[in-house]
Amino acid sequence: MAGGNCTAVTEFILTGVTDRPELQVPLFVVFLVIYVITLVWNLGMMVLIRIDPRLHTPMYFFLKNLSLVDACYSTVTTPKMLMSFLAERKAISYTACIIQYFSFILFVISECLLLAVMAYDRYVAICNPLLYMVIMSPKHCLRLVAGSYLWAFLNSVIHTSGLLRLSYCNSNILNHFFCDINPLLKLASSGTSINQLLVFLFGSLIEVISIVTILISYILIIVTVLQIHSTEGRRKAFYTCTSHLTAVSTFHGTILFMYFRPSTSYSLDTDKMASVFYTVVIPMLNPLIYSLRNKDVKDALRRAIETKLRAHFSPKGVRIGQPNPSMASLHT
Questions:
Q1: pTM, entire model
Q2: 74 and 283 Cβ atoms separated by less than 8 Å
Q3: pLDDT tens digit string along 280-312?
């Protein structure tokens, strides 16, 4: 990591979300509540999709993976941030910092690609409903999800490898609440042009692929829906897409603001606040968006509660539905 007379940095000191002492405890409580809600909603969504056979469809298979990714990438950053609110010395070791950055990139890119896959799934469901279960077969769904994770893993390896070549000689004060690329590059003593090029090239490639896939999918969806003569049919078709569009807008809007705005408007403090939104708030919002605006999920939650209550008062219990045999293997 070091070269010449550079003393190797063994740890970084995080500045945290704020340095105002009177805000540390209140912010700790707020973000702890958000984190607990994030875990409960995302893990609850995964359990609900698994136990309710009526949700054993490609759409909910992708949603289950999205919930897993949200829970993971929130866990990568939030616990350390919570500790920093109460700790006098907000340190993170160099190794832990690298691992945190690797994990963060892995899950963020996975989410980006999964949102694109979900847009493709909605396109097939609305534009080719008769062939939907043929096209979105269990094997094809697994390939799409595995491909998203693999591509995210390769990108994470590339970016982390680029980060390992940097040296830090002047300071170890990291102006952030977690190890993100921009503050790490700003702190580096060695040249960062290669890292900036990697971030721009691979970040742009992933964003372009994801956004183009989403745009094309929804353009074709709109064209198909406008050909539906029934007003109720058009309303139902658009309603199935509103949750996904809301999740896409919040996620990609924040990412584009963070990493693709003009360098003249770059500010670490502004980025820190934006990072709070997409690392802490968005993972909490996604399951809320999909549950509050999704009749299938609300019905599944109601059935699960009713089944639990009936099982409590009746020794035999009840079944909540019949599984989709073709998709059952994806949810076991």
A1: 0.86
A2: yes
A3: 988 998 888 877 667 777 777 788 777 777 776
